[in-house]
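Morning F.,

Quick status update on the modeling queue. The single chain you submitted on Monday has been processed. Sequence for confirmation:
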Amino acid sequence: MKMKKTQLRTAAVLLTGVLAAGAAAVPASAAAAQQKAGTVVPRLDSAGSGRVSVKGGQTLPSFTGLRQTGQTKNSASVSWNAVSGASSYICAYEYYSSDGQRVNQGRQTVTNPSIQLVGIPTGGMYILYLQASDSAGNYNAASEFRGAASLPKVRTIAYWKPFAASSRLQVAWAPNSYANQYTAVLYKKSGKKVQTVTVKSGQNCIAYFSKSNTSTCYTVKLTPKAAGSGLSVTGPSASFYAVPQPKLTSTKKDVHRNRVALRWKKVSGASRYMVYVSPQKTKRSSTSGMKFKKVATVKGNRYNLKKYKGKTINTGKRYYYIRVIAVSKYGRKTVKSGSAYYVVAYMKKR
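Structure tokens below.
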């Protein structure tokens, strides 16, 4: 079957002191479930609250040590090293929602080298503009700091490639607003940790698990993070349960006139397998448009195909296209493997 990859262009503001916006390629299955967002680049216009300036000369030292020192769900504390000679600090701020919309702005003046920002939207971010001044009206160069009180949960995770097309598990996800790195942890169904992969900003949001295989069910735990330049915020984790499609192993020796002895590789963690059949008069180069009918559900990895819709099969007159789908329990959910990759046609030579 011909496989297509669809790219979803989603740019989001990333965090640290200053990070670039990034985009990631996401498979169609992930893109379909995601709320598409446009390019988000928060900036102040010429009349914005971030135009902090005072009278006098630019003679005070620049800011150093800007950092986020703590946060709750909707607030954040930002500190900096005291500026020599400064008597006060002008702080202008903007708050943005998780989808990049500016929801609030304001300013205040503080005398200590720290500020508490409250009312930040859950899963949103803030931009803080700072300028120091003294009693004579002198000031320093304004500085900007971007941060977040919380990060939104990753909403969409899907296979980057069919879990069978590649010998290793690969998952992709839609970019999380404001996160600049992700930690993807791979677990077996038993809960045993297999591998940890870190994906940083500037890369596609894809995790490739080199220690995985296509005969085991896995759980992927994905955690977003905004880190760097004095910022360290971890978002809630999202989980994805991966079930590989079984690979058919039957050979021409298993094909008889009125029977096909189907065999496939077992999938560790699967509780049962569903067998689908599509008879065709001619050999097909693609499964596009073909209708498959489920003929059996079995617990093992073997099935004798003898009848289709109540009639005895005839491998001398038809090609019998077969696909097997693995089924596994994940908590209270029933999860099925993909079905598109392993499709095998069986026919006895005339």
